[in-house]
Amino acid sequence: MFDYDAEMQFYRERFRAACAVRAGERVLDVGCGGGQTTRDAGRDAAPGRVLGVDVSERMLEQARRRTSEDGNIDYLLADASAHDFSTTYDVGISRFGVMFFADPAAAFANLRRACRRIVLMVWQSRAENQWAQVIPAALGGAFRDDSPFSLGDREYTRKLLTSAGFSEPTFTAVREPIYYGPDVQTAYENVLQLHEPKALLAELDPAAANRGRASLRDVLAAHDTGNGILFDSAVWIVEAE
After folding, report:
1. What is the CA radius of gyration of the chain?
2. pLDDT tens, 158-206?
3. CA 20 to 30 Å from 231, out of 38, 87, 90, 189?
4. Residue 153 in contact with residue 226, Cβ under 8 Å?
5. DSSP assignment, residue 11?
6. What is the CATH number of the domain that holds 9?
7. In the β-sheet with 230-240, what is the strand arrangement from edge to edge?
8. What's the pTM value of the predicted model, to 2 decimals?
């Protein structure tokens, strides 16, 4: 399984600091995935409680395995965009978990009812993210799914949040490398586990697919820093009350 937490390791402490969870607070982690951000919030919030929510039972199973049973963390299989939360949370956090809502306006209105403040990490535009350009180019095409970058436009996201009832948001630009593995072979296997590269290769004839795989290896080798395969990336940390 692709190690998403390893990929995002250089953003971990920056996001945790931005969340600024305080002892005793109630925290909602939207799109919690394998639970790393939930566990970080749990340590900062103790004795306050943290709820991690995700639509993937597979990811929640991973999160539960990694989380102490006697801690202050719970997990819920639910769609945070529509779930009727019975608790009001001091802070809602999300690391790349809010870009995929089918109805963003309704989703953020729902989160506004549940959370007193929110702290989000979202990708800036595709053009600002090296990995999102060079990997598909190496495979001989372009990724068609722009949903990961749906909140990359500041004005669009500002209007979305203020229309939902949040205060004027702040946007902090952060650039860090993302990590695909310790060596070319591992990074190659990791990339080919991802949906978009697999879909792109499936569209190619066998000869073109083989050329794409060879080109991908070359690109990964060119980004071997000696401390792992790294690509430049850019995010917004968005905060609103």
Report:
1. 19
2. 999 999 999 999 999 999 999 999 999 999 999 999 988 998 898 889 9
3. 38
4. no
5. G
6. 3.40.50.150
7. 73-77, 50-54, 27-30, 91-95, 118-123, 230-240, 170-179
8. 0.94
